[in-house]
Write a structure and sequence with these properties.
8-stranded mixed beta sheet, 506 residues, 18% strand, 41% helix, 6-stranded mixed beta sheet, alpha/beta
Length: 506
């Protein structure tokens, strides 16, 4: 990354102002992609706060970044930057979950500071060291006495008063493990150590701060606890942002992360993915799930035999077709002989009205459904009209019924469906359906506006349809009208016939 046309002074200016340039100099084999804007905003926020910090204040910052998104690398770069540039912070203490991890962190910082370009511009780091151990690096460099110390969480902080100095900045990088958070005793012990021992070791006069970086394992984990305190500034993000885009597409695309969720969810560990990748703990007070709710696992195999689902119907939750619209959602539901209900298939996407009609009728033919429910509100009501026109045009005896809607009752509908799902009264019959539904279930927050809940709502509409139109659902089961003749559709429907029936709508 070193440009021979740049002078040492010009390189120093770019190092100070350009995070990507700085990273490429220190770790050229790793920093092959630019940092996303979120990281650059965090970088600027930390440096500005440290620069403006008064001697009487403490800068406390809680940062949640997803797994697999260069979280530790980002913090190592920050330590190197603070070593090079004078922010009146010369003693930095690094805390990791274990002592070996902390020592590895310090060793990487040590190696990064020996970059040829850093040596060219600022002089040799290694030869400036007056103490060089796995746990402590002391240096006389750039006109300052610099101390870096690495310790494991929960270890003794005695002996860290070096040269009559205390730490000015404490950086905790993944100091809490998931295993620690799962134990009430261990979690409490670590929190007591952090607050009662580690943070109390900070310098009493001069600038001081704590940066706590980790993952949101649960709604009682230490990162979550700190992020809710008014004395802490916090920024928490997931790998998939609120607008549906990827935090860092060069590292992980949305498709990659969703595929990872589907894998983890198939193992019954979807909530782990949300904690590690989305920093979104399941079981928080704002969740749809109550504390004692257990999400049923995905089925071991997909069950596609129609005989398993004697009574079938479709619910449609239409939406717009713009980039910022919710998805149009088409769900095929069923009622079992036992009286339980469930969802067989879900098709969702940003479709045109014509495509929604086409896909809905295709699902009706595939699953031999004789009744379709559409949310009856404004545009949705007009869609029901055109759906009926398409049904008539193709000679099908499929009934269309409008379902009432309303934002005021939507949450109650979804909450009621959630309770049926976790108690085994509503079943999801395929891995794909289970992943789609639980992804929105885990991500839903009652204290958040504009939740993505189209799939949850179309499931909740299934309960509404059964309660209000149960007799009509049973009456319409398995029967359609083709060419003015009522028939019971065969188990295998000729694909060419399906194509002919839908040709007029394409």
């Amino acid at each position: 990354m070193s440009n021979p046309s740049l002078t040492a002074e010009e390189i120093a200016i770019r190092i100070r102002e350009d995070l990507d340039f700085f990273a490429a100099i220190l770790i050229p084999d790793i920093a092959t992609d630019e940092f996303p804007q979120f990281y650059k905003n965090v970088w600027t926020l930390i440096l500005q706060n440290l620069h403006r910090l008064s001697e009487r204040d403490i800068f406390r910052f809680a940062l949640g970044l997803p797994r697999g998104h260069a979280k530790t690398t980002f913090i190592k770069l920050l330590v190197c930057y603070l070593v090079i540039h004078d922010y009146d912070i010369n003693f930095i203490q690094i805390v990791c979950a274990t002592e070996p991890l902390a020592e590895n962190f310090l060793a990487d910082v040590h190696n990064m500071l020996q970059s040829p370009v850093i040596t060219q511009v600022y002089g040799p780091w290694a030869s400036s060291l007056t103490r060089d151990t796995m746990k402590i690096k002391k240096a006389d460099w750039l006109g300052r006495k610099i101390i870096l110390v690495a310790i494991g969480a929960g270890t003794s902080t005695r002996g860290l008063n070096l040269d009559n100095q205390r730490p000015q900045l404490i950086i905790c990088d993944d100091a809490q493990t998931k295993e620690n958070d799962e134990s009430d005793v261990d979690r409490t012990k670590l929190l007591l150590w952090l607050v009662g021992t580690l943070f109390k070791s900070l310098v009493k006069r001069g600038k001081k701060g704590v940066i706590y970086v980790g993952n949101m394992y649960s709604d009682v984990c230490i990162l979550y606890t700190f992020s809710k305190l008014p004395q802490w500034l916090s920024l928490i993000t997931g790998g998939i942002l609120a607008d549906g885009s990827a935090l860092w597409p060069a590292i992980q695309t949305v498709e990659d992360m969703i595929a990872e969720y589907e894998h983890d969810n198939a193992l019954g560990l979807g909530q782990v993915w949300f904690a590690e990748v989305q920093n979104d703990p399941i079981g928080a007070s704002a969740s749809l799930l109550d504390y004692d709710d257990i999400v049923p696992p995905a089925p071991r195999e997909d069950y596609q035999d129609l005989e398993l689902y004697p009574v079938r119907f479709i619910c449609v939750d239409p939406a717009g077709m713009n980039a910022d619209s919710d998805s149009n959602t088409i769900a095929t539901h069923c009622i079992l002989d036992s009286g339980k209900a469930g969802t067989i298939a879900i098709d969702d996407g940003r479709y045109s009205p014509g495509k929604v009609i086409e896909k809905t009728l295709l699902a009706a033919l595939e699953w031999r459904v004789g009744i379709i429910f559409i949310e009856s509100n404004a545009y949705q009501g007009s869609l029901a009209f055109w759906m009926e026109e398409a049904i008539k045009e193709n000679g099908l005896n499929i009934k269309v019924i409008g379902l009432p809607s309303g934002a005021a009752s939507k949450f109650r509908r979804i909450k009621a469906w959630t309770k049926q799902f976790v108690t085994g009264q509503w079943i999801l019959f395929s891995h794909k359906v289970h992943s789609k539904v639980t992804y929105q279930l885990y991500g839903y927050k009652t204290n958040k506006k504009n939740n993505v809940d189209d799939i949850l709502d179309v499931c909740a509409q299934g309960i509404l349809a059964i309660n209000k139109h149960g007799n009509e659902i049973y009456a319409a089961s398995n029967r359609v009208m083709v060419e003015d003749k009522e028939v019971v559709l065969p188990k295998i429907w000729d694909n060419s016939r399906v194509g002919a029936l839908l040709a007029a709508m394409r």
